[in-house]
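Field reference: sequence -> structure
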Amino acid sequence: MYISNAIMSTIGNSGWFRGKNSEPNEYPKEPFNLFGNNTGEITEEEKQREVNKFFAQESARRANWKRTHRK
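Structure field:
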């Protein structure tokens, strides 16, 4: 919903797509929250979990790259 409104306000307000007497589309004030009512504050445990997840993904990516790019 947010994405379609943002695109319509950006592209729809250009001279090619907007009629002479039509009102401009308004850009959405806030992005649509896809993940529930998250206030943006995370605990130290969640931060550490995200860091560990990132490093696990990076080590898997590197292992896959080394496996596919052997000489």
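Note: The longest helix spans residues 44-68.
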